[in-house]
């Protein structure tokens, strides 16, 4: 919708279908940067399991954001991990990290980094791998082997 309540191309349930990958090179989307505003300060990238949630300021600013930033904030009406956003929007993982850092610095995203002790649990990693394998590739084919 033009009022910013539903991501571009989303159905009635608010879920945006995965479409063809963007033809825009990742370094163009991030203006050649490999680290976002917050990562430059900490020296560490956000983990892929970091949860992103749109803030009220972010939802109000949707019409003023770049295409990719708009889509990230719009998809984060409900908590989403960096990995989920990258897969859903078909953006490079590091592009989402850089843009998420920028959006956090601007107050448009709230970022929740999970407890690092839990992320090293082998069962959690196995579930993440299984979830990633359940995502079809660009031809719609699922990976079915280790």
Automatic annotation (TrEMBL):
Protein name: DUF742 domain-containing protein
Entry-linked Pfam families: DUF742 (PF05331)
InterPro entries: DUF742 (IPR007995)
């Amino acid at each position: 919708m033009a009022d910013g309540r539903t991501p571009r191309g989303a159905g009635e349930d608010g879920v945006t279908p995965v479409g063809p990958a963007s033809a825009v090179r990742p370094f163009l989307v991030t203006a050649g940067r490999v680290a976002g505003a917050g990562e430059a300060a900490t020296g560490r990238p956000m983990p892929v399991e970091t949860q992103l949630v749109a803030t009220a300021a972010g939802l109000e600013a949707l019409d003023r954001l770049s295409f990719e930033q708009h889509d990230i904030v719009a998809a984060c009406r409900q908590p989403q991990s960096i990995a989920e956003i990258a897969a859903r929007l078909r953006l490079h993982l590091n592009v989402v990290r850089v843009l998420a850092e920028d959006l956090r610095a601007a107050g448009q995203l709230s970022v929740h980094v999970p407890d690092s002790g839990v992320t090293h649990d082998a069962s959690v990693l196995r579930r993440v791998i299984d979830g990633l394998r359940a995502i079809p590739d660009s031809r719609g084919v699922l990976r079915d082997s280790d």
